[in-house]
Write a structure and sequence with these properties.
- The longest helix has 19 residues, at about 80-100.
- The N and C termini lie far apart (about 55 Å).
- With about 260 residues, the chain is an alpha/beta fold.
- The protein is about 50% helix and about 15% strand.
- A six-stranded mixed β-sheet has the order 1-2-3-4-6-9, sandwiched between helices. A three-stranded mixed β-sheet has the order 5-7-8.
- It has helices at about 5-10, 35-50, 80-100, 115-120, 140, 150-155, 160-170, 175-180, 190-205, 210-225, 225-240, 245-255; strands at about 15-20, 20-25, 55-60, 105-110, 110-115, 125-130, 135, 170-175, 185.
- It folds into two domains: about 5-205, 2-enoyl-CoA Hydratase, Chain A, domain 1 (Alpha-Beta Complex), CATH 3.90.226.10; about 210-255, Lyase 2-enoyl-coa Hydratase, Chain  A, domain 2, CATH 1.10.12.10.
Length: about 260
């Protein structure tokens, strides 16, 4: 890729660092942060090359929206083979988000629809403002989800709810979304990004091996048969507890240097 193409691709994202947290902003506000090939490839590049000292990533949208989904102009000239490759390219990038070595938090506002919702689903924690709304308009466009939504979203909200969204075009508000599993947090207006940064800083301070176990082992354990899952849990617990950082933190707790959990 030439330097001009690289610069154009890079302008599609804003990158800001705060300590061990990297904030990645989708930067097509005039298009409601619609996702084209350039922005998807740029996301893939950043997630494949995170600095070693980054402990968490926050993904957010510049302007009034997180993302209005796939830029439909990307599909105008695709035949079946190109369409398959295009979808699989999205899968590869969103897998880099889901299987990132550090936790990823999505700060959501305005449109979180179609491919934008698929991207949010690949994050590990989702925080919504009251302006956020969730929809899958693919059914009304004559197309089908292609960014992993049929795999990830039902694990959050269930197959029946996703079926309804795609057949009827139903739109969920932020309040409904927080109740039904689209997001784990609902903030005041304008507070999703600050809340995401606050949580990211806290998460980045966790023991790295614990974060790794939660991101990489927990989803596999949840999908495994119970006996396989229990064995994986035992192995992961043993590895985590043997880590020097875990021993230091446990000793600090026993020495009453760490606050107890309270409501």
């Amino acid at each position: 890729m030439g330097s001009a193409a690289t610069a154009a691709q890079s302008s599609l994202l804003t990158i800001e660092r705060s300590g061990a947290v990297l904030a990645v902003g989708l930067n097509r506000p005039a298009k409601r942060n619609a996702l084209n090939d350039g922005i998807i490839l740029a996301l893939g590049d950043y997630f494949a090359n995170l600095p070693d000292d980054i402990g968490a990533v926050v993904v957010h949208g510049i302007g009034d929206h997180f993302s209005s989904g796939l830029d439909l102009s990307e599909l105008t000239d695709h035949d079946a083979t190109e369409g398959l490759r295009h979808s699989q390219m999205w899968h590869r990038v969103f897998d880099r988000v889901q299987y990132c070595r550090v936790p990823v938090i999505a700060a959501l506002k305005g449109a979180v629809i179609g491919g934008g919702l698929e991207l949010a689903c690949a994050a590990h924690i989702r925080i919504a403002e009251p302006s956020a709304y969730f929809a899958l308009p693919e059914g009304q466009r004559g197309i089908f989800v292609g960014g992993g939504g049929s795999v990830r979203l039902p694990r959050l909200i269930g197959v029946a709810r996703m079926t309804d969204m795609m057949l009827t075009g139903r739109v969920y508000s932020a309040t409904e979304g927080a109740s039904y599993g689209f997001a784990q947090y609902l903030t005041e207006e304008g507070r999703a990004l600050p809340k995401a940064m606050e949580l990211a800083e806290r998460i980045a301070a966790n023991a790295p091996l614990t974060n790794f176990a939660v991101l990489q082992a927990l989803p596999m354990i949840a999908e495994a048969n119970p006996q396989t899952g229990l064995l994986m849990e035992s192995l992961m617990a043993t590895v985590a507890q043997s880590d020097k950082e875990a021993k230091r933190r446990i000793r600090a707790f026993l020495d009453r240097k760490t606050a107890k959990v309270k409501p």
